[in-house]
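[agent] plan:
  1. take the single chain provided in the ticket
  2. run structure prediction with default settings
  3. attach structure tokens to the ticket
  4. add a short note for the reviewer (M.T.)
[agent] executing step 1
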Amino acid sequence: MRIFVTGATGFLGTAIIEELTKVGHQVLGLTRSEEGAQLLTSRGVDVHFGDIEDLDSLRRGAELSDGVIHTAFNHDFSKFAANCEADRQVVEAIGAVLKGSSRPFVVTSVAALGAKGPGLVATEETFNIDSPILRRISELETDKLVKQGVNVSIVRLPQVHDRLKQGLITYLIAVAREKGVSAYVGQGDKRWAAVHLSDCARLYVLALERNSAGSRYNAVAEEGVSHKQIAEAIALGLNVPLKSLDAESADSHFSWLAPFMSSDMSASSAITQKLLQWSPTGPGLISDLQQMDYR
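[agent] step 2 finished; step 3 output follows
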């Protein structure tokens, strides 16, 4: 199949492209720059110029393809609500093109939306529409598309990592470097689920090929790694002190990250592993944090 990939030059998108081509799919990659086009061309990928803010360009990409994997997202957290609404519009626009066809559409969301409440392990069977996580609106849009006959499914992400990037933990490392201390809140017993980049990319391809409308998959290899473990690895890597903060101090220390530091985002992938015959094999989060180059 010829698969249109948004976020094709990004951290996750490039890994997905590699997996798609490995199993024989052709790829049409979205980029907005000549530099991105050169990267895609060097990997044997057809180039489609556009942007997630240009919905017409996304519609054209979907029209030219046998399926779509949507991973692009604006991670400017200073305008997070606007970016979540923009993502909903992207899902709506691409879905309108695929309506009434059998072409698969894989949308990206976050694993924590599968938690029924605070501190509970997220599962594929749950979609908490009352969650404070704003990316829920893209999942709501996806549910609408399923009812309209679109073969759309969802891959939910935890912290996706390799030795270069680790999701929200990348920002934690930046804070620790700036403040000169690697911190966690309270006992550090809140947990974040995690998955290695290679395992995550492979899961997207499996979800695409299964083409099961309305399915939700958790791209989770480790159900939960504690904040204290994460902070310890960062402290060792940066050679800075380890420190526990109370909730009040955490707000000023972590800034926009503070709400995440008070949240348990553990998640299970038992259903996903069974449905897709997916067995994560990549390194664990702490292993990558211990082996990365902090310089």
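[agent] step 4 note for reviewer: Residues 35 and 186 are 45 Å apart (CA to CA).
[agent] ticket updated
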